[in-house]
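DM from R.C. (forwarded with permission)

"hey, sorry to bug you on a friday — could you get me a structure for this? deadline for the figure draft is monday and I only need the backbone to look sensible"
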Amino acid sequence: MNIYLGASGAINPLGNSVSSIFDAMKSGQTGIAKFPNAFDLGKDEFLGIIDEKLLPKGEGSKIYRMLNSSIQQTLEGLTDTSILKSPRTRLIVCSTKGDIDELEKGNPSGANLSRLGEHIQRKLQMKNEPLIVSSACISGLLGIINGARMIQQNLADHVLVVGADLVTKFTLSGFISFYATATGVSKPYDADRDGINLGEAAASTILSKDPSIFKKVEAEYLGGASANDANHISGPSRTGEGLFRSVKNALVDASLSAKSVDYISAHGTATSFNDEMESIAFDRHKMNEIPLNSFKGYFGHTLGAAGLLESLIGIESLRNNTLLKSYGFEKQGTSKNINVLSANKGGSFNTMLKTASGFGGSNAAGIFRKV
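My reply, with the result:
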């Protein structure tokens, strides 16, 4: 069964559409800025925070206005928006912490992730209850994989996948406690990398077995898989086992060999252990020569939105025949040689492997083809 992807939307510090974000990245811009004494935590931080001017006006907190912006773009990409009201259309919402600031406002129920799904369901008058996917930093990519499986198992004809997360005092303080945040703009895979930048974003797309619902089909989903390395709550397997298995099973699901992949949009957090683990996993698959990048230096790690947002930007790269440099990368900093892009690369690229890894040993891989 062919599964198509289209009607994508996104907002992050670089823009309020997938194309505008891609164009900003192609021109070498970063949306990460210095925030002195960020959130009164006593430390300067480099973060990717969305300017309120980019957001639509209206009621609701920031994350809801981010979601509204992205979803409006998705509506504009459909030939007939009434399909969203069909009982054969499902909704998947991906986030790690949702509107977590509601806790400090004395409204703990407002921080429940289900609230995000309920908001979208009501806004679009969707018939089915939403599925909430919250599996650390693989949530967005796992949402795509789960949506595709719903279609493959005849549980749905169309699936709207949405992801969103904020930079908040709660999340930032956690990464600071790990000594995991960078002293500048992050440098994934670089020898001088020293940590992560957090970022915020919302993204949305629709998966469907019917390409006619899209004004423009953006890609075909070929296959995907997830695996847990069962190593440590905050540290990945030193052999890359979880990511290795995710990629292996995604390739099987897509009926492809590793050499069929033209491009890898990798996770690349710029932390010591994560980037090293990824290099080992790709080396085990003999994918050392495949062009690879991480987008974290452009807008930070957007947590539950990351896998979805980065998939959409990677697909935009395929459609524009341009692979983007891995921002901040200059010198190989992993034990296994991988082909990290230090400059934009033009050419003909058709198939992308997208990977994600996160806390709790979670790993995921998805494969997409340009249409």
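R.C.: lifesaver. Residues 3-213 form a domain with the Peroxisomal Thiolase; Chain A, domain 1 fold (CATH 3.40.47.10).
me: no worries. The chain is about 30% helix and 20% strand.
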